[in-house]
Design goal:
This protein is an alpha+beta fold. The chain has a domain of 76 residues. Helices cover 27% and strands 26% of the residues. The strands form 6 sheets. Strands 4, 5, 6, 7, 10, 11, 12, 22 and 23 form a 9-stranded mixed beta sheet that branches. Strands 20-19-18-17-21 form a 5-stranded antiparallel beta sheet, with no helix packed on it. The protein has a 3-stranded mixed beta sheet with strand order 1-3-2, with helices on one face. It is globular. Bound molecules: zinc ion (ZN). The site of zinc ion has 7 residues, from strand 9.
Length: 469
């Protein structure tokens, strides 16, 4: 890769492996063979050794990828990729699956927390529409309205949602270049109706096993908007509430279940709902109506996830789809803390999870700059004209650079991070402003993402949990 400088020492290069120590294994390092084909990822210590002996070269800094100079890829073990697509962040976990007598054990080798920029895109689209709308009222020649002259292809997604799909696809493609990934586990829906055997119609008792219970709970959370049906409290523990109490012959059918916060659940006790809500007939009517309404298409909420599935299948990967209920069930069963990456790691069928203490790589989608060449003030009037070119002195905003500023200057010291460039040559590196371009050296070209290792650290105590079952 052209953006990698020649003079990178192993110590400098292995920023990701810096925190390696006993009990705190860092994220693994991706390895390519001499032809650029993926090999199994290796431990940072092994990567350092290879670099020191000149048997490997640095291929990319973040995430760290090395390329062997003397070897071809031999047999690799199959690796899997778990994905938990979310609205603000998506978790991705690379693991090696090992089949044992108790089932598949996953050895997690790399975790990535991908933060999307949907909100920003939404805001920018709104801004753009506002600027364009001005032309309808400004004193200009007549322009016919053209808000409705566009067609939308089937499967169209709003730009803010579509960006998420593309971010996920980008990273899966990258992983395919760096690792021998053969399968993908994707969290597709909140709950699995098949697992629950269509509760609205069949009325089967829900105590068929813990997984069914979890799916049912997720289903109810979705149906009742994750709030108490009686006081609309959110963010509190919610109990399953039998509308007709069991003591009065109420069934366990889903049409008799709602969610209630603990105080409401206790206050209601064994009263009939008519007695409990005697003061609030409107709420009573609303709850009764909602009880009968089945949640027809849970997948409608998950349009982005279905689009992700389509994109991954187009890459030729076998994609196994699982429900969020199952992920939650696995997480509780294996006593794993909740994070985007752990959700991705425990998505699907597994008996245990191992080697999971490293902080994930946090990747934030930043975009590749803007086409807009005029900045406006608060009133929408032009304030500043940007140059046509987006690079200055060979650097572009978003590049990962290291700046070594000599003593005697106010910014003296070593700074590493994303650079923001100015034509006059005074750059901002990381959070330090006013660094002359001459002190900067590029480590990696801007690729639309920013990187940090300050992800949610996972407790060492949560490591190496295998299922007791
Ligand atoms: Zn309540």
């Amino acid at each position: 890769m052209s953006s990698i400088p020649e003079r990178v020492t192993p110590q400098q290069a292995l920023v990701p492996g810096k925190d390696v120590g006993r009990g705190n294994p860092s994220t693994y390092v991706f390895v390519l063979d001499r032809h650029g084909h993926p090999c199994m990822p290796c431990h940072p210590a092994r990567a350092r050794q290879l670099l020191r002996r000149h048997r490997a070269r640095v291929h990319r800094l973040v995430p760290f990828v090395i390329r062997l100079v003397d070897r071809q890829a031999t047999a690799t073990q199959p690796m899997g990729l778990g994905i938990d697509p979310g609205s603000t962040a998506t978790g991705l976990a690379l693991y090696r699956a090992e089949s044992t007598s108790i089932g598949a054990i996953r050895h997690v080798l790399f975790g990535l927390e991908l933060h999307h920029r949907s909100r920003l895109i939404h805001k920018r689209m709104g801004q753009r529409a506002a600027y364009r709308r001005r032309r309808r009222s400004a004193n200009l020649r007549y322009r016919a309205p053209r808000f409705d002259n566009r067609t939308r292809k089937p499967g169209w997604l709003a730009p803010s949602l579509f960006s998420r799909v593309q971010h996920v696809e980008t990273w899966v493609r990258r992983f395919l270049h760096w690792t021998p990934v053969v399968s993908v586990d994707l969290e597709l829906v909140c709950f699995d109706l098949q697992q629950m055997e269509n509760p609205e119609i069949s009325g089967i008792e829900y105590q068929q096993g813990t997984l069914v219970g979890t799916e049912l709970r997720e289903y109810l959370l979705e149906k009742w908007g994750r709030a108490c049906a009686y006081c609309e409290a959110t963010g509190v523990p919610l109990n399953l509430d039998h509308v007709v109490p069991r003591s009065r012959g109420g069934s366990d059918r889903i049409a008799n279940l709602t969610l209630a916060c603990v105080p409401c659940n206790q206050a209601k006790g064994s009263q009939a709902i008519e007695a409990f809500l005697a003061q609030d007939p409107q709420r009573l009517a609303r709850i009764r109506a909602q009880l009968r309404t089945p949640l027809r298409d849970a997948a409608a909420v998950n349009s982005m996830r279905w689009a992700v599935k389509g994109r991954l299948e187009a890459l030729g990967l076998p994609v196994a789809c699982w429900s969020g209920g199952r992920t939650k069930w696995n997480r509780h069963r294996l006593a794993v803390a909740k994070s985007h990456v752990t959700d991705a790691a425990v998505c699907g069928e597994l008996a245990g999870i191992q080697g999971w203490t490293a902080a994930p790589l946090v990747v934030t989608a930043t975009g590749r700059g803007t086409h807009q060449r005029t900045r406006s003030d608060a009133f929408g009037l032009p304030r500043l004209h940007l140059p046509r070119t987006t690079s200055a002195h060979g650097f572009a905003t978003g590049d990962l650079v290291v700046a070594v500023v000599p003593l005697g200057l106010t910014t003296a010291g070593r700074h590493t991070g994303r650079v923001a460039v100015r034509t006059r040559g005074s750059f901002r590196v990381g959070t330090t402003d006013g660094i002359n371009w001459k002190h900067c050296r590029r480590l990696q070209r801007a690729d639309g993402y920013s990187y940090s290792h300050e992800g949610t650290p996972l407790l060492p105590a949560l490591n190496d949990r295998a299922s007791a079952a």
